[in-house]
Design a protein that fits this description.
Shape: flat
Order of helices and strands: EEEEHEEEEEEEEEEEEEEE
Number of helices: 1
Radius of gyration: 19 Å
CATH superfamily of the largest domain: Cupredoxins -  blue copper proteins
Number of domains: 2
CATH topology of the largest domain: Immunoglobulin-like
Structural class: mainly beta
Largest sheet: 7 strands, mixed
Number of strands: 19
Length: 245
């Protein structure tokens, strides 16, 4: 059941899941009612797929989705599928934070913070923007991202999803990983391939698996330089690490 505590209607789209039409959450074109403010709606469907999916608002998406109404959803097979020792999720998002006193609703202003220029503080999010200055994994940017801890010899899965407006080439240092699934669909062995960088377009999910066989603390980040920029020339943004225990 989803309860709407917003001041406007909303609805949830189960991104990548095959559900009944009324449960798909796009009221403009489907028999899928909006959830009005203060009201609730119960979604009912049988999950028939196993894999990595997402969910997000599909009402006033440029505002609601760009202000964070979305997340990742993992469906496991009854036998739990291929055994891994660690299973992590990283969701990419972009944000436009406004300087105090800025006129909200403008796509850009000449005195805006640029990429990597936002100092610590509390700001308004501008969902109308077409240029962003904060880039996050799971809603956090370096130095507040949580390292992915592993032990030597472990098999590690990372589930990557993109709810942002741009593609993000996610690069892992010190290891190669195997792409084993895309958009919740497992790849046949013959279709799997090794990478150290996987480019995630908006709306895509990827599952990659690697063996922790190279001890140390290894960066894991978007390879667009501005997306890992922090104030005063420090590393920031869409950046975390794989850290051996």
């Amino acid at each position: 059941m989803v309860t709407n505590k917003l001041t406007e209607p909303t609805r949830v789209h189960w991104h990548g899941l095959i559900v009944p039409n009324k449960m798909d959450g796009v009221p403009a074109v489907e028999d899928s009612p909006k959830i009005e403010p203060g009201k609730s709606f119960t979604y009912e469907f049988t999950v028939k797929q196993a894999g990595t999916f997402m969910y997000h608002s599909h009402v006033n998406t440029k505002k609601q989705e760009m202000m964070g109404l979305g997340g990742m959803l993992v469906s496991l097979p009854k036998d739990n599928g291929e055994k891994v020792d660690r299973d992590y999720i990283l969701m990419t998002q972009e944000w436009k934070l406004e300087k105090p006193g800025s006129k909200m609703g403008m796509m850009m202003s000449p005195d805006d913070y640029g990429e990597g220029e936002v100092p610590p503080g509390t700001y308004e999010v501008n969902p109308e923007a077409m240029m962003w200055n904060i880039f996050t994994f799971n809603g956090k940017q370096l130095p507040d991202t949580t390292p992915l801890t592993v032990k030597k010899g472990e098999k590690v899965k990372i589930r990557l999803g993109n709810l942002s407006m741009e593609s993000h080439p996610i690069h892992l240092h010190g290891h190669n990983a195997t792409v084993v699934a895309k958009d919740g669909v497992p790849l046949k062995k013959s279709a799997q391939y090794e990478v150290n960088t996987v480019n995630i377009a908006p709306g895509e999910t990827y599952d990659v698996v690697f063996t922790a066989d190279n001890t140390g603390t290894w960066p894991l980040h978007c390879h667009l330089p501005h997306h890992t920029a922090g104030p005063d020339g420090k590393e920031g943004g869409m950046f975390t690490s794989v850290k051996y225990q």
